[in-house]
Amino acid sequence: MTHVLPIQRDAGANLFDVALELATDGLPVLPLRVGKGPFGNCQSCANNACGGRPNMKVPGPCQCPMPCHAWAAATTGPDVIASPAWETAWRYAGAVGYHPGGAGVTVVDLDNADAITWARQTLPPTRTVATTRGEHWIYQGTTRSVNHVREGVDIKSLMSYARWLGPGTGTMTALPEAVRALAVKEPTAVRPAPRAAAVPTLTRGGECRHRSPAYLERGIVMAEQRIADATSAVHTTVYRTFLAVLAAHGRCGCLTETHIARLFTAAQAKGESSRHCTDAWSNARTALGM
User: Fold this and answer.
1) With 80 as the cut, is the pLDDT of residue 54 above it?
2) Torsion of CA 144, 147, 153, 155, to 10 degrees
3) Which of 66, 160, 201, 214 is most buried when burial is the number of CB atoms within 10 A of its CB?
4) Hey, what's the torsion of the CAs at 134, 140, 145, 149, to 10 degrees?
5) With contact defined as beta carbons under 8 Å apart, do 178 and 123 qualify?
6) How far apart are CA 100 and CA 180, in angstroms?
7) How confident is the model at residue 45 (pLDDT cuts 50, 70, 90)?
8) How many Cβ atoms are within 10 Å of 133's Cβ, its own excluded?
9) Between 60 and 196, whose confidence is greater?
10) What is the pLDDT of residue 191?
11) How far apart are CA 148 and CA 78, in angstroms?
């Protein structure tokens, strides 16, 4: 079902009331922490114990009633939004988030003046919402979500969340092919090119434990979670997380560009630029003598 974003909402209303009214209009909502990130996993869902993928982009079979699975927790159910399980989250929430794909829309997140200029020269006009540093351009239709498709531009739609900043201005238009084309490209800025690491010789025989899919996946998920949970000192948290991942997995040849891109994506979701991600990764490699 395709939904149209609500036209008016009282900016002075509290977050719970705003969320409830948005959900009534068919917009899947979730609470966001101060800093715009989703809430971390509850104890039952931590470290993927529930079988889902915590705070990441693939919903698992978890039936946890807490809003602890990022975009996958977004709901239009007033009983869920008002439930005791969500009460604490609303008490500490800093913003209302929503799942654009679930609303049948795509948000082109323009993070600076240059990105806005590019959009005005390249994309058809549509509904526009002012953000802290730029604008959200909202189109009718869904596509893949990709961070950093070009400098200062993210695409948020399926399997993603955006912050509700008001109804915006202008008439929403159909998602253009120019945005769909960007969404199918690999985000080049989040794919660093580390030197190939040699697999160390195993003196006792057997297979390197880091090559176990479950072991490596658990390590990457924990790293993504650590970055997502950072409420301050994000630069430091990202660097230390990269350092920990490289120390555990960087010398056995099991890290792939896909794993590294996931870490970069998690950092960029917290506001880090692609340059900061690349610098932090490079500095962590240098510190480990890699």
Assistant:
1) no
2) 20
3) 160
4) -50
5) yes
6) 15
7) confident
8) 14
9) 60
10) 42
11) 34
Q: Which CA distances in Å does 253 have to 15, 93, 198, 248, 264?
A: 46, 40, 6, 11, 19
> Cα–Cα distance between 243 and 255 in angstroms, integer?
13
Q: Which residues of 89-125 are buried (b: 16+ CB within 10 A; e: fewer)?
A: bbeebebbbbbbbbbbbbbbbbbeeebbebbeeebee
Residue with tokens 């932090």: 280
DSSP assignment letter at 104: T
Which amino acid appears at position 60 of this protein?
G
Of 72-76, 95-99, 176-180, 188-192, the one with minimum mean pLDDT is 188-192
The answer to whether 141 and 173 have CB atoms below 8 angstroms apart is no
The whole-model pTM stands at: 0.62
Question: Amino acid identity of 196?
Answer: A
Which residues pair with residue 29 across a beta bridge?
A: 75, 98
- Type of residue found at 85: A
